[in-house]
Amino acid sequence: MLSDVLKKEYIKLNAECKDWIEAIKTAGQVLIDNGVVTEEYVEEAIKGVKELGPYIVITKGVALPHATNKIGVNKTGIALLTLKNPVEFGNVDNDPVYYVFMLATTDMDSHLAALSNLSDLLAKQEFFEVMKNAKDAQSVIDYIKANEN
Hints:
By secondary structure, this protein is of the alpha/beta class.
């Protein structure tokens, strides 16, 4: 379930980031602070976008940065960063990005149910409103728990 890997302490609301690199670093710092990943993991996620392009912008306004599970992952987790002002990742179809879900996983399977839940939520305009208007992380978690399958 998404709520198993996206915890209240993994959410940072209304962050101010000047560009996509800072957005990934800020989301990554949330995971670093909670012992989920190391700095090396965050640098690998940035490197991946530089090398492969903005494929991580998965739908309008949403990025899902990640890297290989072989470098710097201590446990599976997803951070959510909402941005006060959107940033451009260079994805012509889905920029600008307002929401960054930083994914870290210890293996190839443990996060699949969580990603399925996230995909379902991202199909709901209501979820975007919840994230946009959230005053605290708990309100986002409450919505996720009430709506994950």
